Automatic annotation (TrEMBL):
GO cellular component, one term: cytoplasm
Record PTM N6-(pyridoxal phosphate)lysine, positions in chain: 718
Name this polypeptide is given: Alpha-1,4 glucan phosphorylase
GO BP: any one term: glycogen catabolic process
Family recorded in the similarity comment: Belongs to the glycogen phosphorylase family.
Keywords: Allosteric enzyme, Carbohydrate metabolism, Glycosyltransferase, Pyridoxal phosphate, Transferase
InterPro entries membership: Glyco_trans_35 (IPR000811), Pyridoxal_P_attach_site (IPR035090)
Naturally occurring in which organism (per UniProt): Hypsizygus marmoreus (White beech mushroom)
Taxonomic superkingdom: Eukaryota
Catalytic activity: [(1->4)-alpha-D-glucosyl](n) + phosphate = [(1->4)-alpha-D-glucosyl](n-1) + alpha-D-glucose 1-phosphate
Length: 873
C-alpha cells in the first residue's frame, strides 16, 4: 500500500540499492559478466559453454528473484486464499529457456551472449533436466505450476528435493535396460534458493499415548527426529510479474539427536539412507517401503507446518483455515496430510475431533490418476503403526466406528486385535464416539444400507488380510472436500468403480472431473518455435494473446484451405524431422530417413500402454514387406517408428518389451529388402528434453492403451498441439481430443471400455486358441518364438502374457489395430489432405491448455482468485 512504516533504516537508501529487472542487452551483458567474475570466479579466457550457461542462469535468476520477492510480499499483504499443490513428483525439465520466455527476455539474451562470443542454443543445451518424477503425473504438476503463475493464481507447490532424479536409462548390447543414477545436483543448481532459516522438525517412530480423558488427544514422544530444510524454486508466469514458489524439502539430522533411540551401529547408515531420496520405484528395491513411507510423511508434515505457520501469521481463528487454504493432493501420495492435520489440530491446537474433522474435510482436495487396482496405494498397518504410531490411531479413529460396526454386525466384537487398539483408552474413546454418532457417518452407512455387510467391508479404510492394509484412496476420499479424475471417461470410472460406494453414500456432487492440460508455452512455443511464429503471423495476434488464450487457435481453421499456408506448415514439420534426425545423429550416431512418415510412441513402459501391440504391429508390417515384390514395396509409405520410455527397474515384462524392440530394430534396420521402407529406433533415456525434440517431428503418435486403463494421457495433447495426428484407442483424453478435432482427424481402433470386462472373462473361461482367434497375430508371435529376432526363448514369458489370459486384450484389438495403421497409410498418401488434418487438429486443441485446467481447479475446487502483482509494491 506504500503507507506502511518502512521496517528499518533509511527507506531511500534501501530502495536505491534494490535491483530492478534487466530490460536491455546492456544490462544483461553487465549482469552476465558480473556473475562470471564474482559467482563463478572465472574470466573471458577460461569460460566454456557450461560456465556461460551458469552465468546466464544466475543472471536470469536475479531477475526471477526481483519478481518473486514482489509476488511474495503482495501475497503477504493482500492475504488472498492460497492453494497448495502437494506432489511427490515435479518433472520440470530444463528451466533457462522457459524463464527467458516467461520474462520476455529471449531475444535480449540471445543478442547479449552473442556479443560475449556465445551462441544461446549451445548454452541452453548445457542444462541438465530436473527429472524429479516418473511420468505423466509429475509432468502434469510442472505444467500446473507454469499455468498457475501465468494465470496469476496464488499457488505454491510442495515437493521433495531428491538428490537423484529418475534413473538414467542405458541399453546394453543385448537390449537390456540398465539403470544408472542421475546425480542431477552434481553441478550447482542455479534455480534453487536454499532457505536454511526455514526448518521444521519431523518425528518418526516413538510412542503415542492417549491422554485417556475421552478427548481423543494423545502424546507422541520418542523415536527419531529429523529437520526439514526448505529449498525454493522460482516459478515465473508467462508475461506477468507473478512468480510463484515451489518449495522442496531436504532432510537433515537434528542436532542433539536422541542417540538412545538409535542403535548406535546403525546411526550413520540409517541417517544417510534417509537423506538420499530417490524419485522412482528404484527406491523400493534399494531402500524398501519404509523409506517411501517416511518420505511421504516427512514431506507432508513439513509442508503442513509451513502452511500452518503462514496461516497463523494472519491471526485468524483456526476454524477459518479452509477460507485461506486449499490443499490439493496429487494422487494418494500426500494422503498422510489428512491424519497429520488432524493430529496437529487435536493434539497441538486442542480442537475437538468434530471441529478438526470439519476443517480437514474443507481443506483437502484429491485427484485420482489411476483406476488400475494394482496401482492403488496401500500401506501395511503394522508398518504405519511402527513409523507413525499416532497417525495409525487417528486413522482408526476415522475408521474406528466403521470397523466396530462391521465387527458388531458380524458378531465378532470380542476379537479386538491388540495391535489395532493398543490401550483401553483407545477403545473407550472410539466407543464414546461411536455412541455419540459423530464419526464419519459410519453408523449412518449402516442406517442407510442396513445389513449390507459387504458394503461396509468394501468401504472400510482398512482392508482385512495378513497384514491389514490402509487403503489410501479411501482415506483421501473421506478426508477431502472434492475428488476428481483427470479426463471425462476416467472420472466416470472413478465414480462407478473404485469409489462407487462413496458416491452412493456421500452424493455425486463431491466427485468431479478436471480434464488434464499442458502448458502451450513449453509444448508449442518453446519446443516448436517455427510453428509458433507461423501461427502468430496467421492469427494476426500478439503471441502473448493466443499463448494465454489457446482457444484463439481456432482462427487457424480457414488456413487449412490455403495452399501457400499448407506449404509453410508442411515445411516446418519437415525441418522438425531434420532437427530430430540431427539430434539422433549427433547423440547416437544413427542416420534417420527424414523422407518418411514419423510414427512415435513415447511413454513409460507398461503392459496397459501396450507398447507390445505396437512392436508386434511393426513386425507384422515387416513380414508383409518381406512378402512383397520390389515393385510392390515401392508403393508403400516409408515409415520410421520411434519408441522411447523407461521401465520400472523391477518390471520384468516391461523390460523384456524393450529388449524385443531393440532386437527387432537391429534385424529390420539391417535388412536391405525393407530398410528403405521401414526402420525402427528405441531412443534411450527418455526425458522432457527428448520429448521436446520428438513431439514436433511426429506425423502420427500412438496412444493405444486397453480401453479404460489410461486415465488421461497428456502427451497425446502435446502431439496434437504440434500438428501430429493421433492413432489411439477410445480411452482417456483421446476421446475428448477426438470430440474437439473431429473423429475424421483421429485414427481410432479397438474395443470400447464396456466390453473389456466380458472379453477378459472370455479369455479366462472360454479360451479360444490365438491361431483361431487372430491368425495374423499368431503368425507374428510364432516368428518371434522361432527366433527371427534372435534370443530364442527369451521372449516366451512376454509372448505368453498374450497367449494365456491376455489381460490387456492384444488379441482382441490386433486386427483393428492393423486396419487403423493401414488407414494411416492411406491418409498419409494424400499429402494435401493430411496437412489439412494436421492444421485442423492444432486449431482445435485450445481446450487442452493447462491454463483452462488450472482455472477449473481454482474456481470449482479451491475457490481462489487471480491476484495480479502490481509493478510498484
Ligand atoms: C499418470 N499417472 C496417468 N503415475 O497414467 C496418465 N504412479 O494417464 C495421466 O495422464 C497422468 O498421470 C496425469 O494425470 C502417473 O504418471 C505415476 O507416475 C505414479 C508415480 C508413483 C506412483 C504411482
Amino acid at each position: 500500500t506504500g503507507k506502511e512504516k518502512w521496517p528499518r533504516g533509511d527507506e531511500k537508501v534501501w530502495k536505491a540499492g534494490m535491483r530492478s529487472l534487466d530490460k536491455d542487452v546492456e544490462s544483461i551483458t553487465k549482469s552476465f559478466v558480473n556473475h562470471v567474475q564474482t559467482s563463478l570466479a572465472r574470466q573471458a579466457h577460461n569460460l566454456d559453454d557450461l560456465g556461460a550457461y551458469q552465468a546466464a542462469a544466475l543472471s536470469v535468476r536475479d531477475n526471477l528473484l526481483v519478481n518473486w520477492n514482489k509476488t511474495q510480499l503482495q501475497y503477504m499483504r493482500k492475504s488472498p486464499k492460497r492453494a497448495y499443490y502437494l506432489s511427490l513428483e515435479f518433472l520440470m525439465g530444463r528451466t533457462l529457456d522457459n524463464a527467458l520466455l516467461n520474462l520476455g527476455l529471449k531475444d535480449e539474451y540471445k543478442d547479449g551472449v552473442r556479443l560475449l562470443g556465445f551462441n544461446i542454443e549451445d548454452i541452453l543445451e548445457q542444462e541438465r533436466d530436473a527429472a524429479l518424477g516418473n511420468g505423466g503425473l509429475g509432468r502434469l504438476a510442472a505444467c500446473y505450476l507454469d499455468s498457475s503463475a501465468s494465470q496469476e493464481l496464488p499457488l505454491w507447490g510442495y515437493g521433495l528435493r531428491y538428490k537423484y532424479g529418475i534413473f538414467k536409462q542405458l541399453i546394453s548390447p543385448e537390449g537390456n535396460q540398465l539403470e544408472a543414477p542421475d546425480p542431477w545436483l552434481e553441478h550447482q543448481n542455479p534455480w534453487e534458493l536454499p532457505r536454511l532459516d526455514v526448518a521444521y522438525e519431523v518425528r518418526f517412530y516413538g510412542r503415542a499415548e492417549r491422554l485417556g480423558d475421552g478427548s481423543g488427544r494423545a502424546l507422541w514422544t520418542g523415536g527419531q527426529e529429523v529437520l526439514a530444510i526448505a529449498y525454493d524454486v522460482m516459478i515465473p508466469g508467462y508475461n506477468t510479474a507473478t512468480t510463484n514458489n515451489l518449495r522442496l524439502w531436504e532432510s537433515k539430522p537434528k542436532r542433539g539427536f536422541d542417540l538412545n533411540s538409535f542403535n548406535a551401529g546403525n546411526y550413520e547408515g540409517a541417517l544417510s539412507r534417509f537423506v538420499v531420496l530417490f524419485a522412482d520405484f528404484f527406491a523400493y528395491r534399494t531402500f524398501g517401503k519404509e523409506l517411501r513411507l517416511k518420505q511421504q510423511y516427512f514431506w507432508t508434515a513439513a509442508s503442513l507446518s509451513d502452511i500452518l505457520r503462514r496461516f497463523k501469521n494472519l491471526n485468524k481463528p483456526m476454524s477459518e483455515f479452509p477460507e485461506f487454504v486449499a490443499i490439493q493432493l496429487n494422487d494418494t501420495h500426500p494422503t498422510l496430510a489428512i491424519p497429520e492435520l488432524m493430529r496437529i489440530l487435536i493434539d497441538e491446537e486442542d480442537l475437538h475431533w468434530d471441529a478438526a474433522w470439519k476443517i480437514v474435510t474443507n481443506t483437502f482436495f484429491y485427484t485420482n490418476h489411476t483406476v488400475l487396482p494394482e496401482a492403488l496405494e496401500k500401506w501395511s498397518v503394522p508398518l504405519v503403526e511402527h513409523v507413525l504410531p499416532r497417525h495409525m490411531q487417528i486413522i482408526y479413529d476415522i475408521v474406528g466406528p466403521i470397523y466396530f460396526c462391521t465387527l458388531i454386525i458380524l458378531h465378532l466384537t470380542c476379537q479386538l486385535d491388540r495391535t489395532c487398539f493398543s490401550s483401553k483408552a483407545s477403545v473407550s474413546f472410539i466407543y464414546a464416539r461411536l455412541c455419540a454418532l459423530t464419526m464419519i457417518k459410519t453408523v449412518a452407512v449402516e442406517k442407510k444400507f442396513p445389513g449390507d455387510r459387504e458394503r461396509l467391508a468394501r468401504m472400510s479404510l482398512i482392508e482385512e488380510g495378513q497384514p491389514k492394509q490402509v487403503r489410501m484412496a479411501h482415506l483421501a476420499c473421506v478426508g477431502s472436500r472434492k475428488v476428481n479424475g483427470v479426463a471425462e471417461l476416467h472420472s466416470d470410472l472413478v465414480r462407478t468403480t473404485i469409489l462407487k460406494d462413496f458416491v452412493e453414500f456421500e452424493g455425486i456432487s463431491k466427485f468431479g472431473n478436471v480434464t488434464n492440460g499442458i502448458t502451450p508455452r513449453r509444448w508449442l512455443d518453446q519446443c516448436n518455435p517455427e510453428l509458433s511464429a507461423l501461427i502468430t503471423k496467421a492469427l494476426k495476434l500478439e503471441k502473448s494473446v493466443w499463448l494465454k488464450d489457446l482457444t484463439k487457435l481456432e482462427g487457424l481453421l480457414p488456413f487449412a484451405e490455403n495452399k501457400a499456408f499448407r506449404k509453410e506448415w508442411a515445411g516446418i514439420k519437415q525441418r522438425n524431422k531434420e532437427r530430430l534426425a540431427h539430434y539422433i545423429e549427433t547423440t547416437l550416431g544413427l542416420t534417420i530417413n527424414t523422407k518418411a512418415l514419423f510414427d512415435v510412441q513415447i511413454k513409460r513402459l507398461h503392459e496397459y500402454k501396450r507398447q507390445t501391440l505396437n512392436i508386434l504391429g511393426v513386425i507384422h508390417r515387416y513380414l508383409t514387406l518381406k512378402n512383397m515384390t520390389p515393385a510392390q514395396r515401392k508403393k508403400v509409405n516409408n515409415r520410421v517408428v520411434f519408441f522411447a520410455g523407461k521401465a520400472a527397474p523391477g518390471y520384468y515384462i516391461a523390460k523384456l518389451t524393450i529388449r524385443l524392440i531393440v532386437n527387432v530394430a537391429r534385424t529390420i534396420n539391417a535388412d536391405p529388402d525393407t530398410r528403405d521402407y521401414l526402420t525402427l529406433y528405441f531412443l534411450p533415456d527418455y526425458s522432457v528434453s527428448l520429448a521436446e525434440v520428438l513431439i514436433p517431428a511426429s506425423d502420427i503418435s500412438q496412444h493405444i492403451s486397453t480401453a479404460g486403463t489410461e486415465a488421461s494421457g497428456t502427451s497425446n495433447m502435446k502431439f496434437c498441439l504440434n500438428g501430429g495426428l493421433l492413432l489411439g484407442t477410445v480411452d482417456g483424453a483421446n476421446i475428448e481430443i477426438a470430440e474437439e478435432v473431429g473423429e475424421s482427424n483421429v485414427f481410432f481402433f479397438g474395443h470400447l471400455t464396456p466390453a473389456v470386462e466380458d472379453l477378459r472373462y472370455q479369455h479366462l473361461y472360454h479360451h479360444i486358441p490365438i491361431e483361431k482367434k487372430c491368425p495374423a497375430l499368431a503368425h507374428v508371435l510364432n516368428q518371434v518364438s522361432l527366433g527371427l529376432f534372435g534370443d530364442n526363448e527369451v521372449y516366451e514369458p512376454l509372448l505368453n502374457t498374450i497367449r494365456q489370459g491376455d489381460y490387456y486384450l492384444l488379441s482382441d484389438d490386433f486386427d483393428s489395430y492393423i486396419a487403423a495403421l493401414a488407414m494411416v497409410d492411406e491418409a498419409y498418401s494424400d499429402t494435401e489432405e493430411w496437412i489439412k488434418k494436421s492444421i485442423r487438429t492444432t486449431a482445435k486443441m485450445g481446450k487442452f491448455s493447462s491454463d483452462r485446467a488450472i482455472n477449473e481447479y481454482a474456481e470449482s475446487y479451491w475457490n481462489i482468485e487471480a491476484t495480479p502483482i502490481t509493478p510498484h509494491s
